[in-house]
Amino acid sequence: MTGVPASAAGGSGAKPVRGGKLGTAAVNQASLWNIANILTMVRLLLVPGFVLLLFHNGGYDPVWRSFAWAAFAVAMITDLFDGHLARAYNLVTDFGKIADPIADKAIMGAALVSLSVLGDLPWWITGVILARELGITLMRFWVIRHAVIPASRGGKLKTLAQGTAAGMYVLVLTGPLATLRFWMMMVAVVLTVVTGLDYVRQAVVLRRRSLAAERAAVGRTAEALNEAAGSPGAGVADAGAVAGPASGASGASGASGAPGASGAGASGPAVRVSGGSTPVEPTVGARDGADAER
Fold this sequence. Notes:
By secondary structure, this protein is mostly helical. About 75% of the residues lie in helices and about 0% in strands. The protein contains nine helices and two strands, in the order ααααααααββα. Strands 1-2 form a two-stranded antiparallel ribbon.
């Protein structure tokens, strides 16, 4: 979910009708209490409830662990529904933008850490998955000024594999099902690492492209300013070129040509005249003036 005002996101901005049904007009207003945000808040509230159910009666009671699995399953399902509703009905709020990823990481992190505390899941698996999730989250903030990294198909498959494997570990399974959940978790770990490296590659490429585009834009702006700043200097130089022959002629008729030269220097920036009406080149003084204006 993204967080922009409803009026800026295509909503009508009108107040919801009290007692009315949740229709398209109401959804488009993207108020704080929309259905997508409610599902996100339910998922946040399920995190402590899931932990309490998992550790109830010592943490190894099959019945209570089944209740914990149900809470975990509901949390994972709400993650699918709130995202779908947000995209389909343009439900966008600042709260949803912040709370949705926090809820996703919280329920998965709580499950992995709790299972490792109970001794059901090796700590290295929990460490790899949590380090990847935290690192990718920080990396998204690192490149958010330049671009937004879209969720890839591999990332969605990774989330599905993690949820399935963690849910199987929450249940008390034995025999072939216990072996199956181990290999499912291995698949989740591999997808976690591979998609994490792919996100890093995307972030580096997007940041480089964005910085290159910014440098190109700055260069074009500088060129435009240089042209705008150089236009008045060129006009002065042309005027000096026109006045040059006259002052030279008057200097030749007098005792010396120096007064004409000094007069040209006093009237404005010095110019180098290569001929009577030939275009002239601005001197260092004109260039310094343009640089100062930039």
